[in-house]
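ESCALATION

Customer reports they have been waiting on this structure for their group meeting. Please prioritize. Original submission:
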Amino acid sequence: MKKRSFYNEISDNKRDSVILIILVFMSVVFLAWVISWFFDPAYTSIIIIFAAALMIIMSWASYYHSDKIVLSTMNAVEASPAKHRRLHNLVEGLCIGAGLPKPRLYVIKSPDINAFATGRDPEHAVIGVTEGALKILDKEELEGVLAHELSHIKNYDILFMTLVATLVGMIVIISEVFRRSMWYGGRRDRDDKGGGLLIIIGLLFAIFAPIIMKLVQLAVSRKREYLADSSAVQIGRNPDALADALEKIKSYNKSRLRASKAVHHLFIHNPLKNVESWLSTHPPVEQRVKRLRSM
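Update from on-call: job pushed to the front of the queue and completed.
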């Protein structure tokens, strides 16, 4: 197998993520334009501003309090420097190499192997690791998992995914407003040939856009997981260690980690059952391992 530089992987995944988010943004603009044409522009502007304000407020609250939200839903306790010395030492060493401040560390009471990262920026970051990961993974494998989580922090993935969620949420709200409002009339000239075609296009877009954009959101999430894997290699310089850890996770986990659907995308491996599909927030483990082995 031809070896591939992790620098290439990082560059490609960043490019793909940007392309996907541009697609989401352009969809918001197009849908807003169709609504503005169909209805009174002043009325539509008020709706769009209200929807945008609502989504920004919700996203701001989620972004700035993400660590508290996640920790409140998990059975996690702060990692003791004495009891969990290996965990603290590994994170400190990786943070020095990555040029990051040390995040707060938590241990999740679960026999499954998993870990998550959250927080609005590197200065307010949190990493949680399951008891199963601390018990089963060897030093190099645990270091690979921690490097992956630190990569999410370094790449500002919480901010990036919050932005994507905001745009997708706006599309859902605007689409719903458009579909419902069509029954109450719009511009009088909408029934001409050109206008009728535009209305059909707009209606179809309003129906299918939320579904398509949700799939795009999942694709962005998977790209960020690939990016975190590649960045972990840049930090830890050991792709095989992370690959070995992912293979252990795949073979050992039994979905015993109780995590809300709202936070499962934060984990290194989706804790929900039957997640190895195109509807998952995470790429298949086999594909991730294959990429890591090629570096």
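Sent to customer with the following note: The chain has a mean pLDDT of 81.
Escalation resolved.
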